[in-house]
Here is the input.
Amino acid sequence: MNWLTNNWPAVLELAGAHLMQSVVPVVIGLLISVPLARLAAGNRWLRPLFVTGSSLLYTIPSLTLFVVLPLILGTRITAVSNVIVALTLYVIAILVRSCVDAFESLDRDVLQAATAMGYKPARRFFGVELPLAVPVMIAGLRVATVSNISMVSVGAVIGIQSLGTLFTDGLRRSIVAEIVVGIVATVVIAVVLDQLLRLLGHTMTRWQRTGTAAPHASARRRDDTGDGADTGGARGAAGALATVESGGASA
Amino acid sequence: MSLFAEAAQFLTDPAHWTGATGIPQRLLEHVGYSVLTMAIALVIAVPLGLWVGHTGRGGGVVVGLAGALRSLPTLGLLTLFTLLMGLGLMPPILALVLLAIPPILSGTYSGIAAVSPALVDAARAMGMTESQTLFRVEIPVALPVILGGIRNAALQVLATVTIVAYINLGGLGRYLIDGLAVRDYSRMLAAVVLVAVLALAADAVLALAQRLVTSPGLRSTGDRP
Here is the structure.
């Protein structure tokens, strides 16, 4: 504790750098992944390309990317931008996959109902498809965020400043307290961000707890295997759409 | 572009393929640490996951534990254990085991927990004992999910073993750390290629294993209850 009281300004500064390096990639990654996933969903050529590509990307260790990117981008090896680009790639690798699944698992009847109600493609995407994909996207975001926060510290091995610097510095100078502070600070950041994302998902999906959308959707799917011509399912889909709309308006 | 040519030269130089600092030796060390880590993690996490999944007891604890372990930075554990226990093989292996446990544990637990209760009830109704139910019904059905967790863990371990070179151990990370120390970027790039190829190869092998052990009864997913 003594070490922390003497060094907290430095710790705070490193924590800020750490937070920046883990959050910026998540935001950029999300903005890139959603359109990519929407393009790939149901597409015979793009889907396997993106899904296999992203899982291949994920097998490449982070330390190696931190080293290779400066050679490709022409940045200094200790530049923060290398970490940001590398982690953005990982976020895309996680999110494209889960977003493709989310868009493909949307109930077709809900989409048709939206079109029938006069939704143009853009409005249907932002008003219906995106909100319905939120739960899966939040799950992917939480995984990406927590793994980013852990990976950022690896950059310290090649001299990029973050909370990981406390580990390399603590080892070099044999200060156990410094390393413990670094571990605790990293875990605290991870837990806080994870809970914030959970809350965000909770407030954005209040329609999930109205209790009407899910049963109708699954009942309809079972109908599909029987005979197609029934009106109950269509009513259910319209009901689901209505709950999406009210959820979207209040969120 | 010359850097890539230099890296290719490093990789094709016969002198780098022999001796105690040669590529085969480093590769062997890298795989050795990974296998040791995975063996310890499997012995701990699989039985625990099976027990929790089968009995349904402590599921919340396991999910919480796995989440908490996941947010621990491996580099921090690596340096902490090294300071507390001294240089050697055990501190990094311990840190890596803690990295490998969460995916294996949650894969095993959620795989078993997701087996249809109707299936388990049917097994019991046919007179199977608890262990028969677990080993003949639940594990075969959950195997793809369990192996998915193991595959995930193995890839993370292979990637992270790269940083044990930071505390004076071997493995392919040696080329990265040593190359960085003398600003020899071609050597670092060569190491990157080797680690990436190793990771891709391991992933392909594990994916194949996952396919092979999947029971034929599980392959057609269309008509499951």
